[in-house]
């Protein structure tokens, strides 16, 4: 049975009750994991308050600000994990960002700054977090990130995020190869389109969802809970032989050719 009792899990990327990371946190909690939650701080602290209220029922034992563009915040997040928990078992990387202007129109018009921003936040951050997390994963561990089909195929308007996801997926393989000898596994879940804060800010997401409902073998989109259950599996010893993989949780959409 899926059992995460005695495991410490750090979850990044919860913004609201639609976040994929929220679906993951709930399923990890249900499986018995001890949770730590990080949030992206903003000047007014509004995010912090909302996320704190949302996660309260899961009783996280850590609640920490962590902007992946801020090295000190990453350092202090993992220093706190070390101090309060002693060891880390599970790291959930569930964040991405690109300028909104770079997610529409001609890909060739992507600026140097926009390209660097998308790759820094959405791909390099996995390298940073894994480097900080791995020394704390003294009994082995499971690192899980979220990717999208736009990293391996051209999806209209996904543009620079597609390049960032391609880099992210290759990060998964290089990290898995490096950290495997320490029994740290690194995998990605490639989720089908889900309505979240990030996806709803993108024009045409509803049309994409309707397209999936027509074409995907299961004739529907996936839910945050389904992604959460897959993350719980990848976090657990049930998946002890799996590393370096991209696991599609997409109602089968990606197998279709027509
Ligand atoms: P979301 O908006 O709920 O989550 C994105 C998160 O990224 C937010 O919590 C935000 O605070 C965080 N973030 C952005 N910049 C950050 C920074 N500098 N430091 C720390 N955190 C930062 O949207 P979501 O759809 O749940 O996205 C989560 C992940 O799932 C992303 O990697 C996304 O690419 C991936 N994904 C989403 C879908 C989809 O259709 N929604 C499909 C496949 C993969
Ligand atoms: O990875 C994502 C979303 C990533 C994302 C979304 C935004 C919108 C708001 C990153 N940065 C931003 N920046 C913002 O200012 N998805 C997989 C969801 C998504 O985004 C798309 C999609 C899908 C699906 C963009 C274009 C086309 C399809």
Concise structural overview:
Helix content is 41%, strand content 14%.
Q: What would your notes on this structure say?
A:
- By secondary structure, the chain is α/β, with parallel strands linked by helices.
- It has a single domain (8-251), classed as NAD(P)-binding Rossmann-like Domain (Rossmann fold, 3-Layer(aba) Sandwich).
- The chain has helices spanning 20-30, 46-55, 71-85, 112-133, 159-179, 197-200, 205-215, 224-235, and strands spanning 8-11, 34-39, 62-65, 90-93, 141-147, 184-191, 246-249.
- The protein has a seven-stranded parallel sheet with strand order 3-2-1-4-5-6-7, sandwiched between helices.
- Helix 1 (20-30) crosses helix 8 (224-235) and helix 4 packs parallel to helix 5 (159-179).
- The longest helix is centred in the middle third of the chain and has 22 residues, at 112-133.
- The model has no long low-confidence stretch (mean pLDDT 97).
- Bound molecules: nicotinamide-adenine-dinucleotide and ligand 0WE.
- Nicotinamide-adenine-dinucleotide binds next to helix 1, strand 5 and helix 6.
